[in-house]
């Protein structure tokens, strides 16, 4: 096997299609080199090597050493420099790069190849020796941190002291001599903390760094990141070894990061930051305040330091042309890293840029309208679940706000919550159901779990491309970064802003769209559904096959769902209507009645209430199919508990209270979810379903009379296991329908069907379909009954199950395709065999989960049903599944 892939100097052993092998960074470096962009030469050690490294007990096979030597010769040949040669030393960077970008991974090591001899050589051949010593001190510091894992605070301290001694503020003020002294101190620190001298052999340096990159694949941070992002552990990472170019060679040198479009808003314009006379991550580390890329951005921000467009117009021009070229080449918005060495531009990275949901939407629609991609590609470009961010409220611009301070609008959306100052507290509070805002001076990969747990993130330092900003945008968390007026003392759990104090637990609101930070909670408004969102939805609707309905039981929910594009109701649960205060006494009266007459008396009181419930819903959904599920929950759930509740029932019925209590005790169940519920209620007390069916058909007639258009009721019998159960219940429903239609002198089309939520029902679907005109897969219960796991009790162990890979995802969130999915596929097939035109749908939480929707498309269901806010997500996911 070949483990090394070269790039640069007219050679590209790989390309953008090789991400699995070369990692994203390596594949794109090779691609950029192959399309003629200026990329410093280098080579990529493939992910296959990482896998092998772990297979062989973290050792390198001998053949790889030869391959690496060849790779180095390739770089030496192009640059004319020699690795480890004091006369003309080649320096390299060692960069990790997995298939997908992973902020939890090892940091890059720059300037590798410097030692006490080569630094002198480099200084001798450079116009300004300062740059050689700056590079060496950076190298030792980075190597000590990421490879040797020594306490980097000590190195920073030494640097601070070196500056303070001279009364300096910036690193750039240190002279060559100052830096030479600092290097000596750094080497002493390495000796002290590591017990050995800093490695002088450049090959030891290289293998140390390569080993550290592979080692970082199994670091805790990386594991957490993989878990949160569903990244398999066996992918491995690649390592890129690349000739250094120097942004720290003086005033005509610089380093920067850019997006080809605004990653927050999606606005079509270059967006980025750069720093003159700087290297690597100086821009994102917040050491100096970076300068804007474009003149327009600088002016808009009212900032003084020249933009790159103004300071280096020629290089900027070349950079801008490169942005356009890369966007056209990759047909997507790019996130780019570059360095300018003495007025020469070098490209160091490109990848599809992370973006907010809003930006994803705008960029997809814009690019389709620009003709860069097709409408169908645009539909595929937006992550359905990311729409969630856009469908939720933002701050009401007219609501009063008590503005504390303003930072940078780093990630949009608004959030309110209690202030916490560290990630662990954030995680704990969130686990208790509290909304928290994580406040940090700046964030680092160690904070990721807290950022995930928080509703929003606020930092005092860092720009638009800081760690906090990038990670928050990726997670869809609102973030305000670089709120410089905040003085945060995390250990005392307090922050100050002017003369105001905010303590842990105080409520703050952040607005990631404006950067405002407010004391207290601020009112919100509903999102805008027209514009780009509307356009994309139209494109999605053109390609999707699956219909999308909603789970709704109130007229309000129905209206919201229709605005979001629901095409009917997939599940209207009737029990919620029974819990209402005005009705619960009648419900209890019905349950506790001793005989049918007593039950009927109570049901007579409930009938008009149900009838008006249904009429209101039918009015909103007129012309659309409405699946109404007859009473499902265990009677147990409706039983009175408090003395006063028993008294209410006693008064209503005239039955002795002690007798009622005895009856309630009789109805107690040990395992109500497998007890007297679903169609078992209808089988034992048919009058309940009879009343509900009458109410449905009366309401349907009411609406038909009033509006001239009839609704399409689909009466659904829950928890059926056998054909006979459904047959009995269908008789009840059909009889009620016949009676109502005779009374009203009109007929309304309706269907009777069942939920498939028990394994037996799935297996016997062929027989059940003789009675059922539709199946709706009730995947919440079907998951519980198939896995034998109670959803309400699963929290205690399910996360461990997912962690240990027993289930790939939480099966209550995303369908267990292998198990539950097989039952669904089988039931669909057997149902269709009996009744070819049987309607098939899915209700339950899974109906709004994109992965589950893809599965529904695969088995050819007719529709999915999701809660109102997830309807657009389902529409988009259904479209993507069809493409
Ligand atoms: P990350 O994955 O964290 O972005 P990178 O490998 O991209 O890490 O390295 C971070 C930064 O280091 C780059 O943006 C670039 O500024 C600098 N860098 C990396 N390799 C080189 C190089 N060969 N020459 C100059 N700078 C480099
Ligand atoms: Mg990094
Ligand atoms: Mg990078």
From TrEMBL:
| InterPro entries linked | ATP_grasp_subdomain_1, PEP-util_enz_mobile_dom, PEP_util_AS, PEP_util_C, PEP_util_CS, Phosphohistidine_dom_sf, PPDK_AMP/ATP-bd, Pyruvate_phosphate_dikinase
Q: Which UniProt keywords apply?
A: ATP-binding, Kinase, Magnesium, Metal-binding, Nucleotide-binding, Pyruvate, Transferase
Domain PEP-utilising enzyme C-terminal per the UniProt entry, residue ranges: 530-881
Q: Which residues form the PEP-utilising enzyme mobile domain?
A: 434-515
SUPFAM superfamilies in the cross-refs: Glutathione synthetase ATP-binding domain-like (SSF56059), Phosphoenolpyruvate/pyruvate domain (SSF51621), Phosphohistidine domain (SSF52009)
Q: Where is the Pyruvate phosphate dikinase AMP/ATP-binding domain?
A: 64-370
Q: One of this protein's Pfam families, by short name?
A: PEP-utilizers_C
* GO molecular function list: pyruvate, phosphate dikinase activity
Q: What does the record give as the reaction this protein catalyses?
A: pyruvate + phosphate + ATP = phosphoenolpyruvate + AMP + diphosphate + H(+)
Quote the EC number: 2.7.9.1
Q: Its domain of life? A: Bacteria
Cofactors required:
Mg(2+)
Protein family: Belongs to the PEP-utilizing enzyme family.
What role is this protein assigned?
Catalyzes the reversible phosphorylation of pyruvate and phosphate.
Put simply, this protein is called Pyruvate, phosphate dikinase
């Amino acid at each position: 096997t070949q483990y090394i892939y070269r790039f640069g100097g007219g050679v590209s052993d790989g390309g953008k299609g090789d991400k699995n092998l070369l990692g994203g960074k390596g594949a794109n470096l090779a691609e950029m080199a192959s399309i003629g962009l200026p990329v410093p030469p280098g080579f990529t050690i493939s992910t296959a090597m990482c896998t092998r490294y772990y297979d062989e007990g973290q050792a390198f096979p001998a053949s790889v050493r030869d391959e690496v030597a060849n790779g180095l010769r390739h770089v030496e040949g192009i640059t004319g420099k020699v690795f480890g040669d004091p006369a003309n030393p080649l320096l390299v960077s060692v960069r990790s790069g997995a298939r997908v970008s992973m902020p939890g991974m090892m940091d890059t090591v720059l300037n590798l190849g410097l030692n006490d001899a080569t630094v002198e050589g480099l200084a001798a051949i450079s116009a300004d020796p300062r740059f050689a010593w700056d590079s060496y001190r950076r190298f030792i510091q980075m190597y000590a941190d990421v490879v040797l894992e020594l306490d980097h605070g000590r190195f920073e301290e030494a640097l601070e002291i070196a500056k303070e001694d001279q009364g300096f503020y910036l690193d750039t003020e240190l002279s060559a001599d100052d830096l030479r002294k600092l290097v000596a101190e750094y080497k002493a620190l390495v000796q002290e903390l590591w017990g050995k001298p800093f490695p002088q052999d450049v090959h030891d340096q290289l293998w140390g760094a390569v080993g550290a990159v592979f080692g970082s694949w199994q670091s805790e941070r990386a594991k957490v990141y993989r878990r949160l992002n569903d990244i398999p552990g066996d992918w491995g990472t690649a390592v890129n070894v690349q000739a250094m170019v120097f942004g720290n060679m003086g005033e005509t040198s610089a380093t920067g990061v850019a997006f080809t479009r605004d990653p927050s808003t999606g606005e079509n314009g270059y967006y980025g930051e750069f720093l003159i006379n700087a290297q690597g991550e100086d821009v994102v580390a917040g050491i100096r305040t970076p300068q804007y890329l474009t003149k327009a951005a600088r002016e808009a921000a009212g900032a003084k330091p020249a933009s790159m467009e103004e300071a280096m117009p020629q290089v900027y021009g070349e950079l801008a042309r490169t942005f356009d070229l890369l966007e056209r080449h990759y047909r997507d918005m790019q996130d780019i890293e570059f360095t300018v060495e003495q007025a020469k531009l070098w490209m160091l990275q490109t990848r599809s840029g992370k973006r907010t949901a809003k930006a994803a939407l705008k960029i997809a629609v814009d690019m389709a309208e620009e003709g860069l991609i097709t409408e169908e590609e645009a539909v595929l470009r937006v992550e359905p679940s990311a729409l969630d961010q856009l469908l939720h409220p933002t701050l009401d611009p007219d609501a009063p706000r008590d503005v504390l301070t303003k930072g940078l609008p780093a990630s949009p959306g608004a959030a309110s919550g209690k202030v916490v100052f560290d990630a662990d507290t954030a995680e704990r509070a969130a686990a208790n159901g509290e909304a928290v805002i994580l406040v940090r001076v700046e964030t680092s990969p160690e904070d990721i779990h807290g950022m995930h747990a928080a509703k929003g993130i606020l930092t005092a330092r860092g720009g638009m491309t800081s760690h906090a900003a990038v990670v928050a945008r990726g997670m869809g968390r609102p973030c305000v970064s670089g709120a410089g007026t905040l003085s945060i003392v995390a250990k005392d759990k307090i922050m100050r802003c002017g003369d105001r104090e905010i303590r842990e637990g105080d409520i703050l609101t952040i607005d990631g769209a404006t950067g405002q930070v407010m004391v207290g909670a601020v009112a919100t408004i509903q999102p805008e559904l027209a514009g780009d969102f509307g356009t994309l939805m139209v494109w999605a609707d053109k390609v999707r096959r699956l219909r999308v309905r909603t789970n709704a039981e109130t007229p309000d929910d129905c209206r919201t769902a229709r605005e979001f594009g629901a095409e009917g109701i997939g599940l209207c649960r009737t029990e919620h209507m029974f819990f209402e205060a005005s009705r619960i006494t009648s419900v209890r009266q019905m349950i506790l009645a001793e005989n049918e007459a007593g039950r009927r008396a109570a049901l007579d009181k409930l009938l008009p209430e149900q009838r008006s419930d249904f009429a209101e819903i039918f009015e909103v959904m007129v012309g659309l199919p409405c699946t109404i599920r007859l009473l499902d929950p265990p009677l147990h759930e409706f039983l009175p508990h408090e003395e006063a509740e028993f008294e209410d029932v006693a008064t209503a019925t005239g039955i002795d209270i002690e007798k009622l209590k005895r009856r309630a005790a009789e109805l107690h169940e040990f395992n109500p979810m497998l007890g007297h519920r679903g169609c078992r209620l209808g089988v034992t007390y048919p009058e309940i379903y009879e009343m509900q069916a009458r109410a449905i058909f009366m309401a349907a007639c009411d609406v038909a009379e009033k509006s001239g258009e009839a609704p399409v009721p689909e009466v659904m019998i829950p928890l059926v296991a056998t054909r006979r159960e459904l047959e009995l219940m269908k008789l009840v429903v059909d009889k009620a329908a016949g009676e109502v239609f005779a009374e009203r002198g009109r007929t309304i089309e309706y269907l009777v069907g069942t939920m498939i939520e028990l394994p037996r029902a799935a297996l016997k679907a062929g027989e059940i379909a003789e009675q059922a005109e539709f199946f709706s897969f009730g995947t919440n219960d079907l998951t519980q009954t198939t896995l034998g796991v109670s959803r309400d009790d699963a929290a205690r162990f399910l996360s461990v199950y997912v962690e240990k890979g027993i289930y790939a995802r939480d099966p209550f969130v995303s369908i267990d395709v292998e198990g539950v999915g097989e039952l669904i596929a089988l039931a669909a097939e057997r149902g269709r065999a009996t009744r070819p035109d049987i309607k098939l749908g899915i209700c339950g939480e899974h109906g709004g989960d994109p992965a589950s929707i893809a599965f529904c498309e695969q088995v050819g269901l007719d529709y999915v049903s999701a809660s109102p806010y997830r309807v657009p997500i389902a529409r988009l996911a259904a479209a993507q599944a069809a493409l």
